[in-house]
Amino acid sequence: MPPKKMGVNSKAEAAKARKSATEAERKEKEARDKEEKYWREAEGAKSRAAKKREEESEKRAEAAARKAEARRLAEIEEKELEKSLKKVDKKTTRVAIPVPKVTEAELRRRKEEEQAQILKKAEEDKRKQSRTAKEEEYEKMILVENTNRDDAIIEARSVEEAIAQMSVADSLPVDKHPEKRLKASFKAFEEAELPQLKAEKPGLTHTQYKDMIWKLWKKSPDNPLNQVAEK
Question: Where's the Coiled-coil domain (predicted)?
Answer without folding.
Answer: 147-227
